[in-house]
Amino acid sequence: xxxxxxxxxxxxxxxxxxxxxxxxxxxxxxxxDSWAWCFSEELGLTVKKETLCYGCNLTAESGMASDVxxxxxNKSISERKPTVIFLQLGCNxxxxxxxxxxxxxxxxxxxxxxxVCTMKGANPRTKNIAISKDKQKLTNSNxxxxxxxxxxxxREEAPDARVFFLAPVRYGQELHGADSLKVSQLKxxxxxxxxxFVEDMQMVTRYDFIWKQTKPxxxxxxxxxxxxxxxxxxxxxxxxxxxxxxINLGKVSATLKERGGKHTNTxxxxxxxxxxxxxxxxxxxxxxxxxxxxxxxxxxxxxACIANQKRTTFAGAMAYIVNNLKKRFPAARIYVITPGxxxxxxxxxxxxxxxxxxxxxxxxxxxxxxxxxxxREGRLSFVFNNSKGTGSGTNASPFLYNVPSRETSDLLHxxxxxxxxxxxxxxxxLRGEK
Length: 434
Hints:
With 434 residues, the chain is an alpha/beta fold. It folds into two domains: 2-102 and 142-204, Rossmann fold; 215-432, SGNH hydrolase (Rossmann fold, 3-Layer(aba) Sandwich). Helices cover 35% and strands 17% of the residues. It contains 17 helices and 16 strands. It has helices at residues 29-43, 67-72, 76-80, 98-102, 104-108, 143-157, 177-193, 201-205, 208-212, 227-230, 233-241, 296-300, 302-308, 314-328, 352-366, 374-377, 416-432, and strands at residues 2-3, 7-10, 22-26, 48-50, 84-88, 109-117, 126-132, 162-166, 174-175, 197-198, 217-224, 243-248, 282-286, 333-338, 371-373, 399-400. The strands form four sheets. It has a six-stranded mixed sheet with strand order 4-3-5-8-2-10. Strand 6 and strand 7 form a beta hairpin.
């Protein structure tokens, strides 16, 4: 049996919890009460319960009362400007069928893919892109579609709130049978949306530096990375939020693995650029965004790749880096950031980031390293919906790729707003491992 102490959490820009209202929206009063008590006892947080969804279902056929319908028609969310929103939905639902579960991707994206112009260099190239369905076309027939509609609405109506999704079972309940299946499906949806999955209240308290307005002491951090590090957006936010100094070796277009026998712009090559006399307290390995995923047969062979330090694989490349780091800095704590990519929509394979992140996570586990899961807690938006209205998705009139969004400068790299998500996630993880 497994006890459920879990929260699914969608990050949106932060305000101090103490200054706002904590709102709890559940569709089952008895289950809601068990969580409200936990918030009060373990977090010292009093929540305002909203009754609008009591008795409703998360998934529902057209015309039936549903959580989606009640939330999207409710004005109190935007009027009250809550600092925190806890959603506890699906309490009254059966688990999705295997067919529904397998169709989550098709529920969110239109196929075939559209065309996008990257607008980079003298000769901009046009490539395929995954296009999200118009929100009016999303259905409430499964968890993916229903939660997508709710999340999109909350991002518009409460952009300054933190939104959590609570597991639809009593707090502390042992999971088995139908409840276990339901929670596992919600975990899968959370990963698709890159919504953080927090296993217990202790993990939530790692974020208390935000609402307590304290600056955790991190120390000196050595960064091996790509453009996410070199542009210094999230590192600048981390310097604002914590006591930290960086040795930043990140370089644009750097890969974690060797490509074509070359390793001149890899994270491993950055080892030679570490300044003499460096004494980092923490080393962070951030890469994989510019790499292709390993083949499944390669993943099965990761132990051998690590033993041989085969640098054309994630596991071997990481083994090479880690072995060198441990020799030079035996007292430093080493972390691996999983690649999130800020939008699914900049590729015609929208779920490749999940595959790559899972592979890097497995390699890190084999090497005994903790991960900072940007693929689950860092991604800012799960789809590209052409919000700027550029083009029509054809070769003759492609969508424009390098346009800013609320959280990015070009639909890939974070701006000052998006950098807050990433920085807070890093601080939270560094506080959890000492």
